[in-house]
Amino acid sequence: MCRMLTFSVLVAVMLLSACQDKTPEATRQVQIASQQLVPGDSELAAIYQRSCRSCHTIAATGAPLSGDSVAWAPRMQRGMPAMIDSVINGAGGMPPLGMCMDCSEEQFEALIRFMAGG
Ligand code: HEC
Fold this sequence. Notes:
Low-confidence stretches: none
Order of helices and strands: HHHHHHH
Shape: elongated
Distance between the termini: 56 Å
Bound molecules: heme C
Number of helices: 7
Number of domains: 1
């Protein structure tokens, strides 16, 4: 009886963890991959390094990680203008302008395309 109960608890725990989007290991891999990415354009790369990168390569910030197309897809479906609005006005844990006070809309768009994986 006791063994049966232990087994049921085990199954419940396994089912619960299967419900999570990603295992901690998968998240870690996506985070490591995101940290290898830098925009090809040097001016954009400089902006990225001092602003977006500090959050968009750290899963714990809650930001969709650079190159994580799965995380970006549902956001990108809302359209580029909505994405640019979110950066300018701030969204959730992201401060207004994403910590790039002098970025143009064109630069935000290029940075978003880069992070969303093209
Ligand atoms: C201080 C941390 C931080 C910085 C710096 C930052 N972001 Fe974010 N960003 C976030 C977080 C957290 C989210 C998720 C917000 C949410 O949906 O709750 C996010 C989400 C986004 C989104 C999706 C918004 C949406 O409505 O789905 C875009 C686009 C974005 N960031 C672009 C940028 C760009 C471009 C930069 C650099 C110029 C940048 N971010 C800098 C933390 C940051």
